[in-house]
């Protein structure tokens, strides 16, 4: 696991390392101070990502936001994301989707009682459903659509074997966009992200007009960058809470008292989730080990203990200002969807804590849970979280 191996090296050799990884000169940064230097002082020089082979194939020749190189095109589409697709106003306009999907999540979990529930599966469905409805205005898991298109499966498999799935993936996207272009299509009350992008494209005020492939690349990013991150944050958060019933109780109490969800605010949970990412300068790859930084004993007391209360009353910023906690990255290429992501996670987490008493299945102890992580762009547990969720308001 790179984040673990690189932390071990940093503990031995210091917070900045140079590694020659095959042909690629690589610098690994593992302290808040050096992350700030990389992502703030030298942000401009490190504002591109490596255009890996599979990204060129999958993301329409890297014309999406994540992989397009720093320059006029990236600035234009990033601006569209910030101002149009992921603005606070737009995120607010999708509150009905979040509310309905959280209600469905709670219903699905409740239905499994008195049996156990595969919470990981439910959380993956939730993240996928929110993104599908927001992006396409379509419900993929109700009425068999989800299985028909199999988005989650496609996304998972595309990480492993790109070309085999590529045409299936792209044909689904083509179909979605074609449906949106149909003048006979019934106008929805709420615009989805494809509608918004097609409007921007039509307005014709862009310096570089967007092609249909550009539109698809941007939408694909919303899935690729949005579903797994949301899912793993919820999955790790719930895993830690269920393994630490005393912590769960404290937060449950807060989520019951609070009229909004602010009591289980994201920074409390993001402190626990794994994250690392890669930036790129002209020749050298930079790894920022955000996972190690979030557990640095120089900054954090008892860094290995799950203690989300440490953030109560703290004003540490988790959106890229304070480099001790950077789950969303920082600087020019920092995550443009902090508002979107936190809104999707907060409501689900607060409702899950509020609606159920959580236990591990009889005979399973917290220390028996297999915490092995899968190797990938995001790090999720290989084992699913199987739990007993007792409805509190049946
Ligand atoms: C818990 C949820 C999320 C986490 C923890 C997360 C984290 C991150 C991180 C660490 C980066 C790289 C930052 C850097 O290089 O400094 C990133 C970039 C990005 N994220 Fe997120 N993200 C989340 C949710 C989302 C969602 C929901 C979307 C879209 C709907 C999204 C879209 C993007 C995009 C497009 C980029 C690339 C930005 C660019 O290169 O200009 N993210 N995210």
From TrEMBL:
CDD domains cross-referenced by the UniProt entry: CYP71-like
Q: Which InterPro entries match?
A: Cyt_P450, Cyt_P450_CS, Cyt_P450_E_grp-I, Cyt_P450_sf
PROSITE patterns per record: CYTOCHROME_P450
* Gene3D superfamilies cross-referenced by the UniProt entry: Cytochrome P450
Q: What lineage, starting at the top, does this entry show?
A: Eukaryota, Viridiplantae, Streptophyta, Embryophyta, Tracheophyta
> Hydrolase among the record's keywords?
no
Which residues are recorded as binding heme?
Answer: 335
**Would I find Iron among this entry's keywords?**
yes
List, alphabetically, the PANTHER family matched: CYTOCHROME P450 71A9-LIKE ISOFORM X1, CYTOCHROME P450 FAMILY 71 PROTEIN
Q: What is this protein called?
A: Cytochrome P450
Q: Which cofactor does it need?
A: heme
Single GO MF descriptor = heme binding
UniProt keyword list: Heme, Iron, Metal-binding, Monooxygenase, Oxidoreductase
Q: What organism, scientifically named, is this protein from? A: Rhamnella rubrinervis
Q: Which family does it belong to?
A: Belongs to the cytochrome P450 family.
């Amino acid at each position: 696991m790179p984040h673990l191996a690189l932390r071990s090296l940093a503990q031995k050799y210091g917070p900045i390392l140079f590694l020659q990884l095959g042909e690629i000169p690589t610098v690994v940064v593992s302290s808040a101070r050096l992350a700030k230097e990389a992502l703030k002082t030298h942000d401009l020089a490190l504002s591109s990502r490596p255009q890996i082979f599979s990204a060129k194939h999958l993301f329409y020749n890297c014309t999406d936001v994540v992989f397009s190189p720093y320059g006029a095109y990236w600035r234009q589409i990033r601006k569209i994301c910030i101002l149009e697709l992921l603005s606070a106003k737009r995120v607010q306009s999708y509150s009905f989707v979040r509310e309905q999907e959280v209600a469905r999540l709670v219903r699905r979990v409740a239905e499994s009682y008195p049996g156990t529930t595969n919470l990981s599966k439910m959380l993956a469905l939730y993240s996928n459903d929110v993104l599908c409805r927001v992006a396409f205005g379509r419900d993929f898991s109700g009425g068999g659509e989800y299985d028909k298109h199999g988005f989650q499966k496609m996304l998972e498999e595309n990480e492993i074997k790109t070309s085999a799935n590529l045409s299936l993936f792209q044909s689904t996207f083509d179909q979605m966009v074609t449906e949106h272009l149909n003048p006979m299509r019934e106008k929805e009350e709420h615009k989805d992200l494809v509608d918004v992008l097609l409007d921007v494209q039509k307005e014709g005020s862009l310096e570089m007009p967007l092609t249909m492939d550009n539109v698809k690349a941007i939408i694909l990013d919303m899935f690729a960058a949005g579903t797994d991150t949301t899912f793993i944050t919820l999955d790790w958060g719930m895993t830690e809470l269920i393994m630490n019933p005393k912590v769960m109780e404290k937060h449950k109490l807060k989520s019951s008292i609070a009229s909004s969800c602010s009591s289980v605010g994201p920074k409390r949970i993001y402190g626990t989730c794994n994250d690392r990412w890669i930036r790129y300068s002209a020749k050298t790859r930079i790894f920022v080990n955000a996972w190690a930084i979030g557990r640095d004993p120089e900054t954090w007391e008892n860094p290995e203990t799950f203690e989300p209360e440490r953030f109560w009353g703290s004003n540490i910023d988790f959106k890229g200002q304070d480099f001790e906690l950077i789950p969303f990255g920082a600087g020019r290429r920092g995550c443009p969807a902090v508002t979107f992501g936190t809104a999707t996670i907060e409501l689900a987490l607060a409702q899950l804590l509020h609606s159920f008493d959580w236990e591990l299945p009889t005979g399973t102890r917290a220390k028996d849970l297999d915490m092995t992580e899968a190797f990938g762009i995001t790090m999720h547990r290989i084992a699913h979280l199987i739990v007993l969720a007792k409805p509190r308001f049946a």
